[in-house]
Predict the 3D structure of the following.
Amino acid sequence: MTKDIRLVICDLDGTLLNSEKKITERLKNNVDELHQNGILFSICTGRIPGMMRLYSKKLNIKIPTIASNGAYITDINFQNTIYKKVMDFCQVKGVMEYLRNNNIQFAVLTDCQAYFTGEGDFQTNFILYNRDAASFNMSMEILYVPKVLDGLKDKDITKLLVFTQHDEEAEKVEEYIKVNTNFYCTSSRKNLLDIGPNGVNKGKGVELLANELGIRLEQVCVFGDYYNDISMFNKAGLSIAMGNAVEELKGVADYITDDNDSEGVSKAIEKILLKR
């Protein structure tokens, strides 16, 4: 099954990154070894494309990465954009008004910007990213949602992040999205909802990237840890779940490796792909 893998695609948070949001030296070396063996490496994440520049540089990724849960597929310099799908602003405005009226925190994401409704723990990933990216001059803008929502009308919005307090609140948001929009709604971690344009998911992103590279889906290996990774597990020829993954993802995986704080991706690459 593994002898003809030509492309490895890895989720970011909870998978490629450890709990400190770092890429280990062992993993960097593993990706170099994959490249030396003719196996391409990329990332598929819910994060925005502007944040992929840092990780592409650190891992020497030359091919496009998949961002915003599949809504944006482009390279490090935004010169080779394979796919981009933005959200209808009229519907986005309705969602923002609903969230604001119900005192639910959210963020509006474009390709390189994040607009938040306030400050809190939900900004952690963005703040930690900027600390790491500053030395590479790759920091991203962290802004705040304007009082007049039409101020975002001219932005290419690829995703909304919704920070819920409990399951009941999340269910109400999901119901609103289902009834009032044609957007998708998925969860990328506990108490965090991703809302984006309909027809977009990680699985479709993996398929589009593989097609662009002339690689069959059965030659693709994917790594992930959460519900939004299920669609790409259903597409790829080889799927590897992290030890810290949700049970639903483990149930559809071909292999289960160690967790993201115990070099889970490296261990699987070495054992399954590099045969060490």
